[in-house]
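Students often ask why we bother encoding 3D structure as a string. The short answer is that it lets us treat folding as translation between two languages. Here is a chain of 196 residues written in the first language.
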Amino acid sequence: MTDRSAVIERTTSETKVRVGLSLDGGRVQVDTGVPFLDHMLDQVGRHGHLGLEVEAHGDLEVDAHHTVEDVGLAFGSALSTAVGDKGGTRRYGDSLVPMEESLTQVALDLSGRGLLVYEAELASERIGVFEVYLVREFFHAVARSGGITIHVRLLRSDNAHHAVESVFKAFARALGDAVALDPRADGQIPSTKGTL
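And here it is in the second language, the structure alphabet:
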């Protein structure tokens, strides 16, 4: 892993999570015990051009809530650590991503202020065994622990799987843009305050 990387381990009475994140690319390998979440996190690594290794063991006999939330918390913490003072980054990222009939817009800011605005509610409650409300829980955890502002807008969809996949892909592309180094910034922190 590079200087712009982090490994975070989070252990509670409900879960044990390890997230390795490299902002400059690398291997993508995910095993959370929640197959749909694995599929979505694989999209984040690949479409964000990130190195992402996630391993989680949770109380899945109860449900997937604790695992999904704690993976989000660990991912956000890894992001915050890896990006450091944000010097030289673009800071902002946005993306508009189609997935067949679904269309999602995500905009984010590495502001240090964790906030999620989520406008992607679906009529479907489940995608297979995965409960759709967990998508919001994941991004809320990422925003809170990562100190980033995330806006998610699902503009249209007829298919819950495609909708959620377009959300994760749009997030990945926006994040990849935000953490990218801008050579014009000359390592400066992207804020008139001089800090984020």
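Translate back mentally: The beta strands are 5-11, 15-22, 28-31, 51-58, 92-99, 102-109, 115-119, 126-127, 130-131, 149-156. Keep this in mind for the problem set.
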